[in-house]
Design goal:
7-stranded mixed beta sheet, 14% strand, elongated, DNA-binding, alpha+beta, DNA replication, DNA-directed DNA polymerase, transferase, Nucleotidyltransferase, domain 5
Length: 486
């Protein structure tokens, strides 16, 4: 008991000298340990060989420490650091008034936890949260209720193909920078600036709504953002239209697609009423996280109104990001059309040329639909892996060249080599067979082929997922951010 008396005196004396948050947490942790030890001693003290005085002494010590804890918690003060040159602290008298406007536009009062800054709509919810939050290094345990003890699949909309998917890619000018090697061991010797962007909208139920568009110019990224905004409004008008079902005798318990009127199958009445078509439009780039996102995310975030949700990998890399198109929300912002940017490389971790090589020519339906007039020979020529002189194009003026650059201009600093003679001969053949007049037109053809091949590769992937999982819960990859093994 003497050891606990000494520890109690130390804690009570030190309580008045606690000045920082770290010291406060350390004191609370020691206080908890001391109380646990005293409580365990009290349990042992209930044995007949120990006196009643020992038990009363233990209870008194716990009460004194709990009282000190309460006084310490009442001393908690929130401070705001103002960065105005000199920098100084000001006292926050009402945390809710300071930050509630940043959380919602209605200005309703929120109740904040001083320890973790989670907020709640009522003081009762805050008190329930504080019971767990104040216990350092412990987890809140929440058990399911009797009515909610079974896990069930409920996301039935993810079993349906996304009606609209956008496949996109861009090309960049690699502008050379001044040699800064003297300033350090590493330096930026190229600056990438997008000069061309293209996209293909694929509609899963009506090919007439599918289209390919591209833009070459300094404003290509802002043009792309405007195109996606316009697409979101068109899709909003489509998904809010409830097309009646063509009902037959065999279609008992009618559950149909509101976009096409197609009969989906029998269902419960509640499931039919609660089913909602997803307002997401997947926008697919190959290697979005590693490259393309850096060029489009700022323009997408600022071009039109609506919040942006990020799924970050690091501070500079995003697994996915979603743009809410505010003008499509009617009165409920949760019903707005959302542009979800995803990386096909997270599902299919290989280069696009390698992925395309796995497909038979009859599987390239989207490429064929955009090049109907091509002969089989020209089609094979177009779908073969092409080459492009990325480092040669260090300014937009290079795109006005009327001849294919020499083979040495296809040199890559990453590989330290140029393209093979057969690949260069293939590029010359494409230039001649497709009557290319400038390097800019060659870039347009190269970009269009890449976008359409990406669309074919990912659509075939969606088809294969549907075939493999037909006997189980049918989930489509375009409904998710990453693949299972990403």
């Amino acid at each position: 008991m003497e050891d606990y008396e000494r520890l109690e005196r130390e804690l009570l004396e030190h309580c008045g000298r606690v000045a920082t948050l770290d010291e406060c947490f350390a004191w609370l942790e020691r206080c908890n340990e001391c109380n646990e030890c005293i409580e365990s001693l009290e349990c042992r003290a209930k044995r007949p060989r120990l006196t009643v005085g020992h038990r009363q002494s233990a209870v008194a010590r716990i009460a004194r420490l709990e009282g000190a804890r309460t006084l310490l918690e009442q001393r908690h003060v929130n401070l705001l650091y103002v960065q105005d040159g000199d920098g100084h602290f000001v006292c926050i008298k009402h945390l809710s008034r300071l930050v509630s406007a940043q959380i919602n536009k209605y200005g309703h009062k929120k109740y904040f936890c001083d320890r973790c800054l989670h907020y709640f709509s009522s003081n009762e919810k805050l008190e329930r949260h504080s019971e767990d939050c104040q216990k350092l290094n412990t987890c809140a345990i929440r058990l399911p209720s009797t009515d909610d003890k079974w896990l069930e699949f409920r996301k039935y909309c993810r079993k349906e193909r996304a009606p609209f998917v956008v496949y996109a890619d861009l090309e960049c000018v690699l502008k050379k920078t001044e040699d800064a090697a003297a300033a350090g061991s590493s330096y930026a010797y190229q600056r990438h600036e997008a000069f061309s962007i293209a996209y293909y909208v694929h509609c899963s139920y009506d090919s007439a709504l599918s289209e390919y568009r591209c833009r070459r110019g300094n404003d290509c990224v802002s043009w792309f953002a405007s195109q996606l905004e316009a697409l979101a409004h068109r899709v909003k008008n489509i998904i809010t239209t409830n097309r009646p079902m063509d009902f037959t005798r065999d279609d008992w318990r009618r559950f149909h697609c509101h976009l096409t009127g197609r009969y989906r199958g029998p269902t419960h009445k509640g499931c039919n009423v609660n089913y909602k078509d997803s307002p997401y439009i997947p926008v697919v780039f190959h290697n979005l996280s590693g490259y393309d996102a850096h060029f489009v995310v700022q323009e997408i975030a600022t071009r039109f109104q609506g919040q942006v949700d990020l799924l970050p990998l690091t501070k500079e890399k995003y697994i996915s990001f979603t743009k809410h198109v505010k003008d499509t929300s009617d009165k409920d912002s949760r019903k707005s059309v959302k542009l979800r940017f995803i990386d096909s490389y997270k599902f299919l971790s290989a280069g696009l040329d390698k992925l395309a090589s796995y497909l038979d020519k009859d599987k390239l339906k989207i490429v064929r639909s955009e090049f109907l007039a091509l002969s089989d020979e020209d089609f094979d020529l177009l779908t073969r892996k092409g080459v492009f002189p990325y480092e040669y194009v260090d300014s937009v003026e290079r795109l006005n060249d009327t001849r294919l650059p020499p083979r040495e201009s296809f040199h890559s600093s990453l590989t330290g080599d140029t393209v093979s003679e057969s690949d260069y001969a293939h590029a010359e053949n494409v230039w001649q067979r497709f009557s290319v007049r400038t390097l800019g037109e060659y870039s347009d053809l190269y970009l269009k082929t890449d976008v359409l091949l990406l669309a074919d590769v990912f659509e075939n992937f969606r088809d294969s997922c549907e075939l493999r999982t037909r006997s189980r819960a049918l989930l489509h990859p375009a409904r998710f951010h990453v693949g299972r093994d990403a």
